[in-house]
Structure formats: C-alpha cells, structure tokens
Amino acid sequence: MEIQKPYLLFLGDAHDILAAKVAIGIKQWHPEYCVGQYRMEECHADCDLPDMDIAAAKAAGAKTLVIGVANRGGIISDKWISILTEALEAGMDLASGLHNRLTDVPELKALADKLGRKLFDVRHPTQTFPVANGKKREGKRLLPVGTDCSCGKMYTALAIEKEMLERGMKATFRATGQTGILISGAGVSIDAVVSDFVAGAVEVLAPANDADHWDVIEGQGSLFHPSFAGVTTGIIHGAQADALVLCHEPTRTTMRGVDYPIVDLGECMALNLAMAKLTNPKARFVGISVNTAKLSEKEAIALMADIEEKYGLPTVDPFRQGMSRIVDQL
C-alpha cells in the first residue's frame, strides 16, 4: 500500500502521550510528512505540531488523515466518526493501524466509495503474496533481530536508514508493522500475513535492486520468544540479509508477556545467523543495538563497552549515539 502524503495526524481523545505513539513516531522520523495535528477536547497528548481543524489541514495540503492514536482494544471510537467523515468530505484519504478496520465502519466505507477516497487499514494487507522461492536477488539487505520483541528493532532500522541517507548511500526502510508503515508510507504488516506466505511477502517487500542499494528491513519478534518465533523465522528467510544487527533491552529478565528468560546474546546471534545462512550463506552480524533508556549515561556506556569487548562488534544505543559506527561496517 502507498499512502498519500502529507498527513494530518489525528490524536483524537488520547489520554496520554503513550497512547499517541504512532503519531509521535511519524513526527519524529518524518516531520516533513506532517502538516499538523487534530486534537479533540479530551486529548492529553501533543506532537508539537500546529493544531488544525479539517478545513485548515486541507488548505495546508493534507492528503491523508492518519489515526495516530492507539486506544484500548484498537477500535475506531464512535466519537471519531464525524471527524473522519469530515476529512473524507474535504478530499482526504484515511489511514489507520488499529485492529478495527476503517472498511468495516459502514458510514465510512459508503462515503469513501461515493467520493472515490481510499481507506488504508495498514494492519490488514489486501495484496496476495507468493510462496518464497529463496532465489538470490540483486541488492543489499540489512535486518535487525532481537533478544525479545519490542526491544528496538524498528527504531534501529530507521536510525540506520537515516545514517545511510545522510552519507549519500542508497537506502530504503522496509516496514513490516503498522507503525512502521505509517511512518514510511508503505510496507506490509507481516503479522497479518498467512504463515505460508511470510517469507514470500518479505521477498516482495524487498525485491531485487541496484547492487549498491540497501533495503533496511524492519524486524519483528524474536527467535526465542514462544509467541513470535514463527514470524521472525519467515522474515529472516525472506530477507536474505547480508547484514544483521542484534537488538537488546538489557534491564529485562524475562520476555514481554511470557515467563521465559532473556537469552544470552551470543546464543541469540548464533541461532539467528544459522537461520539467515539458509537463504544467504554470506550473512554476518555487523553490530549490536542496545536500548539503554532505563540506564544512566554512565551505566549505559559501561554496559555497551562490556558487550563490545565480549562479542567484538560495534555496540551502540541508536538514541544516545546514532548508528555511524555500525554503518561503518557496511
């Protein structure tokens, strides 16, 4: 799916800043995509963008209203319908990463059909994908993998793409989750693809390209997480990654949502590399990305120095330090 830019970010009635994390991510990584934000009276989040109503956003050039808030249960609130309807009538498309589909709201579907507008339910792919063939394809690919889910794989991928582009390298972030799709404007929500076609979907997402072009593919889950190891495996095989980056959150003792211990970093890299070499025998790790948000600066620097000495790979926090040392390895 290709979502038209620029965006009006809809924060709705978000009760805090975390509830607006999708909008925050879009504004952080691509502020040039955003003309402003729409906040209802009950909203307690702010992206530091101009507050606009629908008419003002349309006048500013907005082409898509993006639902940038994730409420409990991922539903499209009845309170939002009149605003979403107004956006359609003003000539905007709608995009959402919620579980509840825009196309399942009768009044929105009927109005969009009548006016020729598009409804993007980015969590729900509409494309059909082939079974992966594993054939070598031109171009370079990098894939972040993790010791756990939600430990920084998307942030790492976006930070690597940013560093590459600033150096004048050819690079494209390839989103595999709904937030990444809304940040970049394109991609496939892999968690909604039928399991037989996950690797094939990644082959389509990151196709053959120029020999010096890097596709930076957003990783998902972890090979050691009992809930998500399957989707991780499919992404690894479809990516045919030339370069892998391990992502890690060092303060966790168990994986998110399950009573499984966080795996040793060396063991994690060994299994990911073995999986990657099935479709690219030349795959290698080029660095370790550590989310040190819960550590002091002193603690973070000491920890990363220890990890780097132990594994012999550039070890950085992409937020504190950027990704230049890892991109140097490419």
In short:
The chain is of the alpha/beta class. It has 12 helices and 11 strands. α1 runs parallel beside α6 and α7 (198-205) packs across α8.
Question: Any chance you could write out the topology, listing elements then pairs?
Answer:
Blueprint: E1 7-12, H1 21-29, E2 34-39, H2 54-59, E3 64-67, H3 81-89, E4 93-96, H4 106-115, E5 119-121, E6 140-146, H5 153-166, E7 170-174, H6 178-184, H7 198-205, E8 213-217, H8 229-239, E9 243-248, H9 265-276, E10 284-290, H10 297-311, E11 315-316, H11 318-321, H12 324-328
Parallel strand pairs: 1-2, 1-3, 3-4, 4-5, 6-8, 6-9, 7-8, 9-10, 10-11
Question: What report would you give on this structure?
Answer:
The structure is a single chain. The protein has 330 residues and is of the alpha/beta class. The protein folds into two domains: 7-121, NAD(P)-binding Rossmann-like Domain (Rossmann fold); 140-328, 3-Layer(aba) Sandwich (Rossmann fold), CATH 3.40.50. Helices cover 33% and strands 17% of the residues. It is built from twelve helices and eleven strands. It has helices at 21-29, 54-59, 81-89, 106-115, 153-166, 178-184, 198-205, 229-239, 265-276, 297-311, 318-321, 324-328, and strands spanning 7-12, 34-39, 64-67, 93-96, 119-121, 140-146, 170-174, 213-217, 243-248, 284-290, 315-316. Strands 7-8-6-9-10-11 form a six-stranded parallel β-sheet, sandwiched between helices. It has a five-stranded parallel β-sheet with strand order 2-1-3-4-5, sandwiched between helices. Helix 3 (81-89) runs parallel beside helix 4 (106-115). The protein is globular, with a radius of gyration of 20 Å. The mean pLDDT is 95.
